[in-house]
Design a protein that fits this description.
Strand order of the largest sheet: 1-2-4-5-6-3
CATH superfamily: Hotdog Thioesterase
Largest sheet: 6 strands, antiparallel
Structural class: alpha+beta
CATH class: Alpha Beta
Order of helices and strands: HEEHEEEE
Number of helices: 2
Distance between the termini: 20 Å
Shape: globular
Number of domains: 1
CATH topology: Thiol Ester Dehydrase, Chain A
Length: 162
Amino acid sequence: MGPCYTIQPVKDYWAKYSITTEAEIETVNEMRTDANKCFVCGPGNDIGLKINFRIEGGICKAEFTPQSVHCGYDNVTHGGIIFSALDDVMANWIFLKGIKAYTAKCDIRYKDTLPIGTAVHLEGHCIKQRARLIIMQGKMIRVDSGELVAETEASFMVAADS
């Protein structure tokens, strides 16, 4: 498999809208009808997490602070919420490059619990790519301590119509 810099997006998602300011990015997020109802990032999902993703230095990044409605038990964030946020930080690395892809497989390793109300950084980046398969890595890191909460490695299949 080749390195990720060989990925050739079909279209540049941001360039087609000539995005330059935060206000314009927010406008584009509202225009994302194909992901508008996404539980993690969709601005049109009333019960969603509404995480805003961005690309910085080749890494997809975001911040998230779980609330009481995201609790599993014992004031700890539900593992499914953690998994969903990590899946989406990897998927958005692909999506923000204008490529339509779907999670084919995702492995997660939980390293520590995440207490409700504890802010985290999310990071996703490409490990390698070949043809329609993209291998990604995601990390969730506590803002207060820098400790790793969970990490993922996933395979994404590029849609045939992308």
